Amino acid sequence: MSATMTTNPLRVGLRQERVIAPQCLVIFGASGDLTHRKLIPALFELFLQRRLPSEFAVLGCARRPWSDEEFRSKMAEALGDKVTDNQQAWDQFSAGMFYEPVDLQKNEDVVRLGSRLDTIDRLRATRNNRTFYLSVSPNYYGSGCRALADAGLLRDPERSRVVIEKPFGRDYSSAQALNKVVQSCGQENQIFRIDHYLGKETVQNIMVLRFANTIFEPIWNRNYISSVQITAAETVGVEERAGYYESSGALRDMVQNHLTQMLAITAMETPGRFDPEAIRSEKAKVLQAARLADELEPWNCCIRGQYGPGGSQSAPLKGYREEPGVDPNSTTETYVAMKLFIDNWRWQGVPFYVRTGKRLAKRLSEVVLTFREAPVHLFDAAGGSPTANQLILRIQPDEGAEFRFEVKSPGSGMRSRPVEMEFSYDESFGEPSDEGYVRLLADAMLSDPTLFTRSDEVEAAWRLYTPLLELIEDSPWRLPIHPYESRTWGPAAADSMLARDGLLWRRP
Amino acid sequence: MSPQLTLQTPLELPPTEVPGYLEQLWTKDQPSSQGAHTFCLLVWQPAWVEQQLVRTGRLNGPITGVQREEVITAARQMVIDGDLPLSMSPLTSSVSDAISNLPGEHQSEDLRGQHIDAAVSALRPRRLITLAPSLDGNHPLETLVAAYCPLPEEGGGTAACGDVVVLRGGHDALTQGLSILHPLLPEDLPSWVWWNGSLDEAPELLKQLTIRPRRLILDSAMGNPTHCLNLLSDRIAGGQSVNDLNWLRLRSWRETLAMVFDPPQRRNALGHVVQLDIDVETEHLVQGLLLAAWIADRLNWTLSSRQSDTDGSITALFKRADSEPVKLRVAPVSMGQPSIHPGQIVGLRLICQPEGLPAACVILCAESGGCMRLEAGGMANMELIEEVVPVQHSPVEADVARLLEGGHDTTNPLLAAAAPLAAKLIQ
């Protein structure tokens, strides 16, 4: 036994999650990045955890004319050490992996897909139970669903479901149109709009923290909370995604989905019961009550930025406009900061500051709730004035939470200073948390939609940012792009926006 | 618990005609009659206690084999009326043996194999075959067949259908009837065998029914403890997928114990365990031994010696990875209102003695039991950690459905590691 146990040996293999029913997971876009970077690793992790039944199959579909064996070997190559460390398990898992060249736009391909699925059902006893994962270009979400429905593959609402990746639409009207198409192909409970942020333990923990502890919920409102900051910062640049990113930008890529979901879970009302529809209804309601701080003049409450060159002489970093595939005159934002309000009894008047950006100083996602200051300052504070209490929910990395509060500084006199109380997932539990896709794939295959966005949520999220999107479309000069140096905390204009409210962005 | 499977009136056929009849029913060239491509479940369903209770008029029929509350209540009453030890679990062979001595010739409809729990029928099994032995050992073989297609309003969106086959009769008749079973279990579908009876009874039938690659569901709480553990470890060693309901019922104990050592500051204590005591209901020590074996396996202990004591307990000495000794005692305790599953754990005490630190004592006790016995013994100067383990209330059919729903063709590695060690402890 080693001197320090990093994991709890009694915890190994004890997961008591629901076991996924026999089924075939069909991945469209199987030759793409997401499949080998996220989906197959997540499925293999589920297999290693014995959460996949023996009657399970993966059918990869894409246009490339791969064979089953090519698909297996390409995935094994991508998983690298994970496969070599678990060769026997991989051999068992990959025996259930198949590939079928399919172009969803071609009717004959979809018919062939149907008969291949029947063959796999017989071979692997997957009980006609199917999950279709659309990891394809967003342009094909609607037509892909339609092709599946036309082939009768979505006919059984209990035994077929479709997972759709982000982005779901480009704006409010396109999201509405896509929802119409998708809902005409199947029932809402068959549609799983994925947002991988919801797969993170800490995002889910916000609900547990709020609704399982009596100490938080009574103060989780405008009477005690003065402001909320939600940050999703990345250190990486646009990397290989210039083609997509040029047409989306930070607002569509991050804010409308991930940050808005964090906002919804942080601000939602208590659901009547822990039930997918009850939770999703509360999230939709709070998004419907959210608005930009200044809808008439959105430029007062939103800052857009774009990273410029940076780094050091030895390791210089390119600016966004110098990245391969990016227009040298691009006005796509890589940073967005904005101020929102939620017009309901709980949050009236409490500003929610949301920011995200690429090439920022640190990679982190967090929600910071700043509490109101004590009404009377009885003590001198070491830092001049007492620091307001803060509850910091760390989404990534180092998932956990911390609470900052004032204590007495040691020594004579009564000076206060802030200290932190910490909770870390990895330290407190005997094993590390699963990757978000592990949780979400499992939930989709279990037909549990709790952590997936419902049509009204998606539409409410798009509607929230419509004034900004229209402004960027019609009068982009009103929302100018502020350049910022790579690996800094974004443009100074974003700091000024908070400074006007007498606040600062948290510098973690 | 409400049986859900809607059945046509079962058709009684001569045994030899059953395979042909079913083959004709699911002929592949008739697209409208498509058999569900799911799994087959073969159930050994003796329901001895229920049959005896009905025969003696202590319970109203029909006989269903489903573990319903009325059966348990009547069996508990029988324990009292029959002057049996109050600590006797009510659904055991001892209780049915006691009732068998009582007079009574009440008759009732026998619906075993036709009443299927909703949790199982929701999985749309392709074929459910029930072997229903009769009290009358000379009862001739009866074979009943019924087909079933879910209606659209029952979620039958696709034409996936199943069938039910019941083989009813005395022991000899059932043994003869086994010849029709093989063609009834399609090779392209996973087959499960649920031995819903004591592991001691009908050994030849057990052997013939549970051949590989059929997946075995059994309950190591039913039958002679040594035989149960030997059977469990032999089958696992033979590469069969074995699912033990007694092991499943341990999950809250394993989870609670793991939870105690989740905080990093407590984890190192696991390397310094010096003593483990487990109390179980009655003399059926299997569950306690499985738990002890799981802990020993996870903490890399090796068995040095073991002995059976006159009070029915088992003591053993393990060697930790650092060669220090660990004492184990699994002891039976009497309970006034025992569980329906013999030998359920009622308490666990784990004492750790880290070097240079005060000893720590972890006590887990069942919601239904209490910890007083384990709390005794001079632990005043130890750091005491106590937790109450929730009692699992899920009916046996729900546990079986859980296994069928996400089935594996291999045994859970934790059980595979624990069972042989538990078998060594009981030898």
Mean pLDDT of chain A: 91
Could you name the CATH class of the largest domain in chain A? Answer: Alpha Beta
- The helix/strand class of chain A is alpha/beta
Apparent shape of chain A: globular
Runs of chain A with pLDDT <50, length 5+?
none
Q: Looking at the chains present, what oligomeric state does this protein adopt?
A: heterodimer
Number of helices of chain A: 14
What number of domains of chain B? 2
Strand content of chain B: 15-25%
Describe the structure.
The complex is a heterodimer of chains A (508) and B (427). By secondary structure, chain A is of the alpha/beta class. Chain A has 2 domains: 17-165, 3-Layer(aba) Sandwich (Rossmann fold); 198-499, Dihydrodipicolinate Reductase, domain 2 (2-Layer Sandwich), CATH 3.30.360.10. Chain A is 35% helix and 22% strand. In chain A, the strands form 2 sheets. In chain A, strands 7, 8, 9, 10, 11, 12, 13, 14, 15, 16, 17 and 18 form a 12-stranded mixed β-sheet that branches. A 6-stranded parallel β-sheet of chain A has the order 3-2-1-4-5-6. In chain A, strand 15 and strand 16 form a beta hairpin. In chain A, helix 7 runs antiparallel to helix 13, helix 9 crosses helix 13 (455-474) and helix 10 (276-289) packs parallel to helix 13 (455-474). The longest helix of chain A is centred in the middle third of the chain and has 26 residues, at 242-267. The two termini of chain A are 37 Å apart. Chain B is α/β, with parallel strands linked by helices and 427 residues long. Chain B folds into 2 domains: 11-64 and 75-246, no CATH class; 251-389, 2-Layer Sandwich (Dihydrodipicolinate Reductase, domain 2), CATH 3.30.360. Chain B has 16 helices and 16 strands. The radius of gyration of chain B is 23 Å and the shape is globular. In chain B, the strands form 2 sheets. In chain B, strands 1, 2, 3, 4, 5, 6, 7, 8 and 9 form a 9-stranded mixed β-sheet that branches. A 7-stranded mixed β-sheet of chain B has the order 11-12-13-10-14-15-16, covered by helices on one side. In chain B, a hairpin with a 7-residue loop joins strand 14 and strand 15. Residues 1-6 and 153-159 of chain B have low confidence and may be disordered. In chain B, 46% of the residues are buried. At the A-B interface, helix 5 of A face helix 11 of B.
